[in-house]
Amino acid sequence: MAHFPVNHPARPLYRVFAGLVGLYILVFGVWGVFETWGQPLFDRGPNWALGLRTNLAFSLVSVVFGIVLMVGASRRSNLGHYMNLTAGAVFMVTSLAMMSVLQTTANFLNFSMSTVIVSMLFGLLLLATGLYDKVGTDEHAEEERRRREHPVARAGTR
Q1: Global confidence as pTM
Q2: Block means of pLDDT (10 residues each) for the chain, length 158 residues?
Q3: Contact of 50 with 23, CB cutoff 8 Å
Q4: Is 9 helix (H, G, I), strand (E, B) or coil?
Q5: In Å, what is the CA distance from 67 to each residue of 2, 25, 29, 55?
Q6: Burial of 21 (0-12, 13-18, 19+ CB in 10 A)
Q7: How far is Cα 40 from Cα 55, in angstroms, rounded to an integer?
């Protein structure tokens, strides 16, 4: 079973990264809503916001996701840990799914290859922040450290 590091020293830095990703997504979503307002929800027109292609549906989802990520980054509990892991997985799955339908009419979020790449990068960054921002008591952190440094655990790596 994998063990997430508890109370990692760089946890505040990882929360900042997750917050910056959330801020970018929120700004992208708000800009995209202004750019695409009045158009059909799943329009496949040439609308761009912050270098990424978008439509009204994708912009509205981005506003919600940006707010959720910023709330998760601002909490000093394990809520942000679980939100980042979940959001990272959602970003990765969505980017792969949209890449598979990029040149078809099934591209309902109006993705371009640059949007796919940015979504994958954000997914990887959120997964990484989710791996290292778990919060726990000092006793729990010490138990995880002892478990990692146990002689039986080291014997398996030889």
Answers
A1: 0.83
A2: 69 89 96 94 91 94 94 83 91 96 93 95 93 75 68 58
A3: no
A4: coil
A5: 29, 8, 10, 19
A6: buried
A7: 8
